[in-house]
UniProtKB/TrEMBL annotation:
This is EAL domain-containing protein. The chain holds residues 436 to 724 of 724 of the full protein. Residues 24-286 form the EAL domain. It comes from Micromonospora profundi. It comes from the Bacteria.
């Protein structure tokens, strides 16, 4: 038995829960030092044109090379970094690294016009300094603004005040592309699409998952496919690009192509991998020409 904080109530001691809490606080405590020690790495995942099969962009996805725990995925620490505010400096580090890598690719493979897509946490997007941070990351790296895309979830787009963020207009004015990440899983009203300079919608994985490998829908009534169909039409009516996330099979890629989805991302086209593997892919394509 353990005394619950404050109220004088008693709670059942749950060893599993407290082990989890200890692991969690150990991770939180380690985050700032890990950033100083350079333990974070950026992996990149191809975003591929469904018709031509060319790699148009890559998404920057951060990982933690933990000295004891090995490679840790962002699902285990991004939430913690958001809670503690460290996401602002971690996110800025990812942004600068991604711009640097993208500029290297641009110099070596100018024809590819490869866009780098960087996730922006709500807390970063809500910070008025974000515009100068992005401008500086572009200036320092030399990357043209048009080759940078920023991904925000629907809730990040709306900001803490529940109003579409003003900074998004300023970011768009810099010339960067803006994408709505995990589109369809938030619960914001769609009015922001009318008012904001958005360039791309990224359809959330679960809709794509609903398109099963054998081409039938999980619910057998093709409901997810119909949702994808409707969302692609919505995007195109607004002259936005659409990227389907979590494409895992050839059948899914084929169906998405038939539904006129523009680009796909997922293990079928390549898992997130270190920058070198993107360089190798760009090189291989050049040789084939
Ligand atoms: P996200 O932005 O929606 O990124 C897509 C996630 O889908 C990635 O998870 C990617 O590895 C995963 N994925 C790739 N291919 C497949 C597939 O075929 N099937 C399925 N089911 N999933 C696939 P990851 O790398 O674990 O990242 C998770 C989330 O962490 C990201 O979701 C993003 O929200 C966040 N994140 C990652 N890096 C950063 C960052 O630098 N800054 C911020 N703010 N968030 C980040
Ligand atoms: Mg993951
Ligand atoms: Mg993303
Ligand atoms: Mg996503």
């Amino acid at each position: 038995w353990a005394k619950a904080a404050g109220r004088g109530r008693w709670a059942v001691y749950d060893p599993e829960r407290s082990a989890r809490d200890i692991a969690r606080s150990a991770l939180v405590a380690g985050l700032p030092a890990a950033l100083d020690r350079g333990e974070f790495v950026v992996h990149y995942q191809p975003i591929v044109a469904l018709l031509e099969g060319t790699m148009l962009a890559v998404e920057a996805l951060v990982r933690w090379e933990h000295p004891e725990l090995g490679l840790i995925g962002p699902d285990r620490f991004i939430g913690l970094a958001e809670e503690t505010g460290l996401i602002v400096s971690l996110g800025e580090w990812v942004l600068r690294q991604a711009c640097h890598d993208a500029e290297r690719w641009r110099r070596e493979f100018p024809e590819a016009q490869l866009v780098v897509s960087v996730n922006l946490a709500a807390r970063q997007a809500d910070d008025p300094a974000i515009v100068s941070t992005v401008a500086d990351a572009l200036a320092t790296s030399g990357l043209p603004a048009g080759l940078l895309q920023l991904e925000l979830t629907e809730s990040a787009v709306m900001g803490s005040a529940g109003e579409p963020l003003r900074s998004l207009h300023q970011l768009a004015a810099l010339g960067v592309r803006l994408a709505v990440d995990d589109f369809g899983t938030g619960y914001s009203n769609l009015a922001y699409l009318r008012r904001l300079p958005i360039h791309c919608l990224k359809l959330a994985g679960p809709f794509v998952e609903g398109i099963r490998a054998d081409g039938t829908d999980v619910a057998a009534d093709h409901r997810d496919e119909r949702i994808v169909d409707a969302l692609v039409r919505l995007a195109h009516a607004l002259e936005l690009w659409v990227t389907a996330e979590a494409v895992e099979t050839a059948v899914q890629a084929e169906r998405l192509r038939a539904l006129r989805c523009d680009t796909g991302q997922g293990r079928y086209f390549g898992a997130p991998a270190p920058a070198d593997s993107i360089t190798a892919r760009l090189r291989a394509r050049e040789v084939r020409r």
